[in-house]
Amino acid sequence: MTIGSTVRTLLGPRLEQVAANAYRRMFVDLDTVAATVAGLGSFENVIEVGCGEGALMTRLLDALAPTAQGFGIDIAVNPGHNYAGNNTNVEFRQADVADIVGEGRRFDLVVVSDVLHHIPPADRRGFLESCRSLLAPGGTVVVKEWVRRRNLAHAAAYGSDRYISGDTTVAFYTESELERLFADVFCHNRAPFSRAYARPHRNNVILAASVAGGED
Ligand SMILES: C[S@@+](CC[C@H](N)C(=O)[O-])C[C@H]1O[C@@H](n2cnc3c(N)ncnc32)[C@H](O)[C@@H]1O
User: Fold this and answer.
1) Which Pfam family would be a valid example here (predicted)?
2) All domains in the chain, ordered by first residue
């Protein structure tokens, strides 16, 4: 059992959510992430790959049009268990991104937030290529990632993932490493992409691109 899961068990479900939100806020303001995504356009059909407990999905569906439909997937058990929004326009499923690609479902917005650093570096390109395959033509992809910087915040984030969450393989990109892979997979190094930062640390990088033809 990790330190994080022990604390969660001791707190119980209601306090766990309060504590998880407060803890996460020390690293990233998810409201800023959701507002940045909503500012990119109007989206109706949204998938979050690696949605975890549903904290970002709660804010995303709140920030998007009331008609937007959300689909959250995660390889971990019980995805979306802390989702706190309207249950009629959201679905969560424990699934791998490749399963959803195989089902032929396509989305006008694909969001990947703080997932890459949990995936072994050799598998990241393939993972993002599968995310690209989920895009409908003209769809938008957003990758939000914590990047490595020489600051105290990064030392705290690394310690949190490595020792509190217990992810022994966690590994962070620098901002330029992240941009290079993002541009390569989603823009084929031609189309432009946008960049934003989420409070409270510039380690929170948000990259977004519209992919003209969906898969090409
Ligand atoms: C830090 S949480 C981020 C949760 C949510 N996206 C957010 O920003 O609030 C990282 C999540 O990525 C998930 N994850 C890791 N590897 C994954 C993969 N290959 N496919 C889907 N989810 C994955 C983990 O299970 C975990 O729930």
Assistant:
1) Methyltransf_23
2) 28-147+171-210 (3.40.50.150)
